[in-house]
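ping. complex inputs:
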Amino acid sequence: AQSVTQLGSHVSVSEGALVLLRCNYSSSVPPYLFWYVQYPNQGLQLLLKYTTGATLVKGINGFEAEFKKSETSFHLTKPSAHMSDAAEYFCAVSEGQAGTALIFGKGTTLSVSS
Amino acid sequence: DGGITQSPKYLFRKEGQNVTLSCEQNLNHDAMYWYRQDPGQGLRLIYYSQIVNDFQKGDIAEGYSVSREKKESFPLTVTSAQKNPTAFYLCASSSSVQEGGYTFGSGTRLTVV
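pong. complex structure:
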């Protein structure tokens, strides 16, 4: 069965600092991996996704993530945090071509201070 | 503009009542999903549908029911059998289950009073 673990339910950074949100997954087949962002009382928005091909994936708002099969990880990074990045971030996994719905992690709340 | 609409935004339910949450999409997506969100729990899958007139249970289907009579619509009924229904409910759609890049609605917050 698939699962997702997000390390750290809350991450705090200063404006301009590196953002690193950690995600590890478990999957018995080649996974599809996703990062979503959620602002308060809203739905989720797709930041980026990995399906096949290049393991470094670039997304919206300057975020990127790297798929590392050997580490079963898909960590999200951004070189310089902005106040508007404060939100909740979710990592998700699916079994790709096996055709199952996304399984989400419990989320990481990112706070950005000035 | 294409999108996915959930209504109502806020819903209050009395003990023992069934309530239905609406989800409509005009994206021509085949697959639709319902998730429940609780603080610190992430999103948990309730039901999903890959095609009209077919749906599958997710991890927490007990106390919920769905229908998929039209491609555009995937309503969720929270029945009286759901003992702890207070939560934020999110509907999503995608072109296929394999595609994974979901479009989410803005959610319905259900509170038991």
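Chain B has a mean pLDDT of 92.
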